[in-house]
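Here is the promised in-class demo. Please do not try to memorize the tokens; focus on the logic of going from shape to residues.
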């Protein structure tokens, strides 16, 4: 049920405007469950996302777990300890900072997609909303072959109303209301993260 996913992104936000890692990963795990329910055609997407979530979960269960409590503590710790490479991916292929950056970019897609879905007409095509939001966000970071595979897979998405019903938030109208309530939290998580990465000039980590 997508309600828990949206609640998880809400739970990420602290009074100090930091982003808690555990609910962030919980939110992502829920999204991946939902993605898997759409069919194996999206396996190549969920596989990559799961790999990234697992990298972060590994940090959260390591001796350094406290360093990874929030995105802010992670950035501070990894930068101070030379665990982030600003130039060469090979040097720190699994840094928390680069890994979260990939999820963060995908969150931008999610935000636009859900907003598109929420504000669309009843007869709109989910595949079009999805393609438009993808082209305006994540696609800019993907090579041609991934863009091609993604756009092909989007064609398999169910109609707008069937998609909204799949979300298990009630009728399509109820799902739209729920999205209207919950999306500001997803946006806030995105904004705080974007600012944090911009401040440290890490928006292009290889
Ligand atoms: C209510 C709606 C919920 C829908 C849930 C959908 C969750 C989608 C999760 C997408 C996560 C994508 C993570 C992608 C991270 C990424 O950009 N990775 C690339 C770079 O990684 P690297 O380590 O090499 O720097 C990597 O090359 C990506 C490979 C996989 C393909 C990614 C295609 C993304 C398409 C996004 C939308 C998909 C689902 C639409 C279903 C509604």
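The designed amino acids, position by position:
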């Amino acid at each position: 049920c997508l309600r828990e996913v949206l609640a998880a992104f809400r739970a990420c936000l602290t009074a100090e405007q930091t982003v808690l890692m555990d609910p962030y990963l919980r939110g992502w795990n829920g999204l991946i469950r939902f993605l898997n329910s759409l069919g194996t055609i999206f396996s190549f997407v969920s596989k990559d996302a799961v790999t990234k979530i697992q990298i972060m979960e590994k940090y959260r269960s390591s001796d350094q777990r406290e360093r990874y409590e929030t995105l802010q503590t992670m950035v501070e710790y990894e930068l101070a300890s030379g665990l982030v490479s600003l130039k060469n991916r090979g040097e720190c292929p699994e840094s928390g900072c680069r890994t979260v950056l990939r999820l963060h970019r995908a969150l931008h897609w999610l935000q636009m997609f859900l907003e598109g879905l929420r504000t669309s007409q009843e007869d709109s095509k989910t595949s079009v909303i999805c393609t438009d939001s993808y082209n305006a966000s994540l696609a800019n970071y993907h090579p041609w072959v991934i863009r091609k595979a993604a756009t092909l897979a989007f064609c398999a998405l169910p109609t707008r109303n069937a998609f909204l019903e799949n979300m298990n938030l009630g009728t399509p109208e109820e799902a739209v209301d729920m999205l209207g309530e919950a999306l500001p939290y997803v946006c806030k998580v995105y904004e705080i993260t974007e600012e944090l990465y911009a401040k440290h000039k890490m928006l292009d980590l290889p």
